[in-house]
Specification:
Largest sheet of chain A: 6 strands, mixed
Strand order of the largest sheet of chain A: 6-7-8-3-9-10
Radius of gyration of chain A: 20 Å
Helix content of chain A: 25-40%
Structural class of chain A: alpha/beta
Chains: A alpha/beta (278), B alpha/beta (289), C mainly alpha (268)
Distance between the termini of chain C: 49 Å
Largest sheet of chain C: 2 strands, antiparallel
Number of helices of chain A: 10
Shape of chain C: flat
Shape of chain A: globular
Number of strands of chain A: 10
CATH superfamily of chain A: P-loop containing nucleotide triphosphate hydrolases
Largest interface: A-B, 36 and 41 residues
Helix content of chain C: 55-70%
Structural class of chain C: mainly alpha
CATH architecture of chain A: 3-Layer(aba) Sandwich
Order of helices and strands of chain A: EEEHEEHEHHHEHEEEHHHH
Strand order of the largest sheet of chain C: 1-2
CATH class of chain A: Alpha Beta
Order of helices and strands of chain C: HHHHHEEHHHHHH
Oligomer: heterotrimer
Strand content of chain A: 15-25%
């Protein structure tokens, strides 16, 4: 689905300073239909990476391909952006219209989709994110989680193959975060949409297919959540925490218990501890 | 001893007389002891923001009273600014309120409004910057050149500089990464220890609250649902969950272990505690109760 | 306190007045204004008022809401009335005191002027009360479409207007928040002389501007990510189309304006 090769990016430098490399040679291959979580502390390059997936930023070195299309090819720009939708952090700054349905219709309108088809897509997209009751509402009166679901619907209306959530849960309360997360999982499961979730909340990675940890503009870790989270010392060194489940198992292991480190969920963790007690 | 803050039957109604009439807080009563570190939790719409804006007189109660050191803060409405200097309030995403040319001048805004002498202002600014974890050389920079985390520290320093008796922080760690969050909370804890003043920490994160505060006040639908030490509150995990609130993950593990027949106190909320409890249990040999 | 200001005075409803195409309504308002300016005397004014009353009845907008709309312009109405009262000269003064004099013609002119402004404002308010801002923008964009030929950026103007409408509530909320935050640091927005008050606004305006620019920046990126590339090749969710009622309304409107024009010429 998405491929990067020796991807480098340097933000334009101020005069007299050497440009700082925000991405320093990233090689990634993201499978179609997978749910990938990208973790990393602020300034690790995770958001910069995300912005390359639909040509908001163009590499200063290396290449990015979206289903074989080079993002640097300007003629393919609209097609790339249609296939890879992007949801941003601040829900207030990505809603364009002052009626929910008009906002969801924005992208298909730009793409020149016929009105009857727009209507169908808008209704379907709002149903998928569970916001069909709010068709005619004013977006500024919705909660944070609801606004982000409208933003997701606005992206789904393009019928994309991939959705990138660029810290889309960072400004939400736990309930809103849960709404967005479960919506993303549902899209992945039911519609086969590839999801790339950029976050620094560790527990959002529990159910992912793959976790990529970014540090200093490079991929520091890459693997299943179980593989990544058992490397407790390494994660801590990268300025990240581990879920409490793993931390508990880690502490017990330090005390000589024979427990696995890869029991991420509360239930799995409790099972592992209970088994070790016997 | 007189509690530093006493809230009595506080009610605030928005849009009274219109069809949109709604009480954001309803007959709320509680008190805060001097020197206490109190956590306030509740999901969006529970009345948290309305409540804290009453504590420093930004909002006036529809009915009820707020006493600061035993005096009703609305006894002399003309002097409400004095209350705002004594009860410092740091809003959510406070970095968006910065406006001065330098960090120093922005932090000095509050103390200058208090009418302090330039020497007093200078001392207040430097002390506050140190508490907020800002190094001296940042003081002459423009706040707009700083990173997001640093901006937030400047904004917090701007309130600390007024040397308030009570400091209220609304979601001070929202949007920060785990390390930034932990460092900021460590600064706040150090400030609390050094000054011994009262702190109210408003947060969505139970984990964050559990690890820092002496006592928790849980709000739900404009009312106080419960209040007590973290241990007392987490012992009522079912009620918290039915109110749509998180329980710390460690508490959930402890409960799951109890369900599996282990004699674990289901109200523990730190990994250290739970690890110690498990180790003790294994040593004792009576794993199943 | 800023939250109390009601913006976007649209009252949702499902009457004939709401269902008409926004373009029809815009044209009708123009015709109404033309008619109003052709009115000369009591008969024609009465007819215009009657037509407005019928429209208000159809739209089910409460008269109280319309009258409330007059409040902000009360001073202007009074001022023009007084000017007309004293400055219109006739033959026989009714009353005289030093250089001030009132003629019967002056009284008439003042009454007509008040009627004209009142009817004008009520008529245009009826439009905004029965048409959502979006429909209004859509209607204007569609009506102004021919201007594209002479390179008027019609689509861009309409897009700017609808984005402005979208962000007004957000920015009001933000203003409220920054104001509270600065008040919490002892800012005083309410006392002092004019200069002090203007200075007190800096801590409010600087963050507000910075935030507005940040929002604009982020919104532009978000729009591009949703394939926005100008008005070219763009379709619409809601396509405007004239129904039979629109044609009927326009014919009636034209007849009305022509009628008033003729009656006005006759001096009625």
């Amino acid at each position: 689905m998405l491929q990067t090769e020796q991807l480098e990016y340097a933000y334009p430098a101020e005069e007299g300073k050497t440009p700082r490399l925000a991405l320093g040679g990233v090689d990634l291959n993201i499978e179609k239909g997978s749910f990938v979580v990208v973790l990393g502390h602020n300034g690790s390059g995770k958001s910069t990476l995300a912005k390359h997936f639909n040509a908001v930023l163009l590499p200063t070195g290396g290449k990015v391909w979206v289903e074989g299309m080079d993002t640097a090819d300007e003629a393919l720009l609209l097609e790339i952006r249609r296939r890879v939708g992007m949801v941003f952090q601040n829900p207030d700054n990505q809603i364009v219209a002052n009626v929910v349905e008009e906002d969801v219709a924005f992208a298909p309108e730009n793409l020149g989709v016929p009105p009857e088809e727009i209507r169908r897509r808008v209704d379907e997209a709002l149903a998928v994110v569970g916001m069909e009751k709010f068709v005619r509402h004013a977006p500024h009166l919705l909660s944070g989680g609801q606004k982000q679901r409208v933003a997701i619907a606005g992206v789904i209306a393009m019928e994309p193959e991939c959705i990138v959530l660029d810290e889309a849960t960072a400004m939400l309360d736990p309930m809103g975060r849960e709404e967005v997360l479960s919506t993303a999982h549902r899209l992945n499961r039911e519609k086969g949409i590839t999801v790339i979730l950029i976050t620094h909340h560790m527990n959002e990675a529990e159910e992912a297919d793959r976790v990529i940890v970014m540090n200093d503009g490079q991929v520091a870790m890459d693997g299943s959540p179980q593989e990544v989270f058992c490397q407790v010392e390494k994660l801590r060194a990268l300025g990240l925490t581990v879920p409490d489940t793993v931390e508990l198992l880690y502490e017990l292991r330090q005390s000589g218990w024979d427990v696995p480190l890869d029991a991420l969920t509360v239930e799995a963790c409790a099972d592992a501890v209970a088994a070790a007690m016997k | 001893m007189e509690p530093i803050l006493r809230v009595e039957h506080l009610t605030h109604t928005y849009g009274s007389g219109t069809p949109f009439e709604r009480s954001a807080v309803q007959d709320l009563s509680f008190q805060v002891e001097a020197g206490e570190f109190l956590g306030v939790i509740g999901h969006t719409g529970s009345g948290k923001s309305t409540l804290i804006q009453h504590l420093n007189g930004l909002l006036r109660p529809t009915s009820g009273h707020i006493y600061l050191d035993g005096t009703d803060i609305w006894a002399k409405p003309k002097e409400i600014r004095q209350v705002r200097f004594q009860v410092g309030l740091v809003f959510q995403y406070p970095e968006y309120q910065l406006f001065e040319e330098t960090v120093y001048r922005d932090i000095a805004f509050g103390p200058t409004n208090m009418g302090l002498t330039p020497e007093q202002v200078d001392r207040a600014v430097r002390e506050a910057a140190a508490f907020a974890g800002l190094s001296e050389e940042l003081l002459d920079k423009s706040p707009f050149e700083l990173s997001g985390g640093q901006k937030r520290r400047v904004a917090i320093a701007g309130v600390i500089a007024m040397d308030p008796k009570v400091l209220i922080l609304d979601e001070p760690t929202a949007g920060l990464d785990p390390e930034g969050r932990e460092r900021l909370l460590a600064n706040i804890r150090a400030y609390h220890q050094a000054k011994g003043n009262t702190i109210l920490l408003v947060s969505h994160s139970m984990d964050e609250i559990a690890r820092n505060v002496d006592r928790i006040l849980v709000l739900k639908d404009a009312h106080v649902l419960m209040s007590g030490t973290p241990r007392e509150v987490f012992a009522r995990a079912e009620e918290l969950e039915s109110a749509g609130l998180d329980v710390p993950q460690v508490t959930r593990i402890a409960r799951a272990l109890r369900d599996r027949g282990l004699a674990i106190d289901p109200a523990v909320y730190t990994t250290e505690e739970l690890t110690a409890a498990l180790l003790a249990l294994k040593k004792g040999g009576s794993a199943v109760c | 306190m800023l939250k109390d200001i009601t913006l976007g005075q649209y009252f949702p409803g499902d009457t004939l007045a709401h269902r008409l195409d926004p373009r029809t309504k815009l044209i009708l308002v123009v015709l109404y204004i033309v008619a109003l300016f052709c009115a000369k005397y009591f008969w024609t004014y009465a007819l215009v008022a009657l037509v407005l009353a019928v429209c208000v009845r159809i739209s089910r907008v409460r008269l109280k809401a319309l009258v409330r709309g007059l409040k902000p312009v009360l001073i202007i109405i009074t001022f023009t009335a007084v000017l007309n009262l004293f400055y219109t000269k006739g033959e026989e003064p009714l009353w005289q005191w030093h250089f001030l004099s009132i003629y019967p013609e002056g009284i008439l002119a003042a009454v007509f002027m008040v009627l004209r402004i009142t009817l004008l404002i009520m008529g245009t308010f009826l439009l905004t009360y029965t048409t959502s801002p979006i429909h209004l923008t859509d209607g204007m964009e569609s009506l102004m479409n021919p201007l594209k030929k002479i390179h008027v950026p019609v689509h861009e103007l309409a897009m700017m207007m609808s984005i402005a409408l979208r962000f007004i509530p957000t920015l009001i909320e933000e203003t409220d928040k920054i104001m509270s935050a600065q008040k919490a640091r002892g800012a005083d927005f309410e006392s002092g002389n004019l200069l002090q008050r203007a200075k007190a606004m800096i801590p409010l305006l600087v963050p507000l501007f910075i935030s507005a620019f940040r929002r604009a920046d982020e919104l532009a990126v978000a729009m591009e990510c949703r394939c926005y590339h100008g008005g070219e090749g763009r379709t619409k969710l809601h396509v405007l189309h004239y129904a039979a009622r629109d044609y009927a309304a326009m014919v009636l409107g034209l007849a009305f304006a022509a009628g008033i024009f003729v009656l006005g010429r006759m001096g009625l």
